[in-house]
Amino acid sequence: MIKLSPSILSADFSNLSKDIKAVENVGVELLHIDVMDGHFVPNITIGPLVLDSIKDKTSLPLDVHLMIEKPDNYISKFAEAGADLLTVHVEACTHLHRTIQNIKSHGVKVGVSLNPATPLNTIEEVLHELDMVLIMSVNPGFGGQKFIESSLKKISKLKRMIDESGKNIDIEVDGGVKVDNVSKIIKAGANVIVAGSAVFGGNSIKDNVLAFKEKFKE
Ligand code: DX5
Ligand code: ZN
Q1: Tens digit of pLDDT for each residue in 65-109?
Q2: Could you list the residue ranges forming a coiled coil in this record (predicted)?
């Protein structure tokens, strides 16, 4: 089953609960929360306080994408604020194995993300520990960027690695995903689709989500 995880980065931040209700009402599976610190990526977004408020407004599982340096310092805060899944960047973790155990110790699902230039062999030794791998298909920091085509090969390669491991690990893809390229992303092996501007942009959030759902049926 393919899951949609709309990224609230492109939502109306002055009216977040309205936009969150809109995606929840059409029936999405997760809610993607982009946390940026202005160091790991050149943008600043939201922290645990806002996550805590979002948690009160929705029953959707919160898929929290940490684009921050030294994530270990904040894992307990995001877990307490209500994250259901915490994804850290391999590039931000000196002791990735330790960070993964740290996330697990909070009873939260664990994901690891790779920037476009980061090879898959950086997660080879920890793959079996993960619930999800997040392949960035843009350089993180902003919504509305163009999908990097070479990500497709990387997704297929990761799918093979996961199949060989015999584990049940989700493949999430984030960045530049649109209704007209999502089919090839799924075909490559992704089963969790993040979309920000393609969900919250345009006229109707509902129609945007439904258009993705149509593609998921193919
Ligand atoms: C980018 C973020 C994404 C972003 C995707 O750094 O991680 O989640 O919101 O936005 P779109 O779907 O517009 O590329
Ligand atoms: Zn993201």
Answers
A1: 999 999 999 999 999 999 999 999 999 999 999 999 999 999 999
A2: none
Question: What CATH number did the domain enclosing 100 receive?
Answer: 3.20.20.70
- Tally of structural domains, the chain: 1
Q: Quick check: CB of 145 below 6 Å from ligand 1?
A: yes
Q: What is the ipTM of this complex?
A: 0.99
- Residue 218 CA to ligand 2 center (angstroms) comes to 25
- Ligand 1 pocket test: which of 45, 113, 180, 197 has the largest number of ligand atoms within 8 Å of its C-beta? 197
pTM: 0.98
pLDDT, one tens digit per residue, over 107-140 is: 999 999 999 999 999 999 999 999 999 999 999 9
Is the beta carbon of 87 within 6 A of some atom in ligand 1? Answer: no
How far, in Å, from the CA of 34 to the mean position of ligand 2? Answer: 5
3-state SS, one letter per residue, for the chain: CCEEEEEHHHCCHHHHHHHHHHHHHHCCCCEEEEEEECCCCCCECCCHHHHHHHHHHCCCCEEEEEECCCHHHCHHHHHHHCCCEEEEEHHHCCCHHHHHHHHHCCCCEEEEEECCCCCHHHHCCCHHHCCEEEEECCCCCCCCCCCCCCHHHHHHHHHHHHHHHCCCCEEEEECCCCCCCHHHHHHHCCCEEEECHHHHCCCCHHHHHHHHHHHHCC
Domain that holds residue 167: 3-216
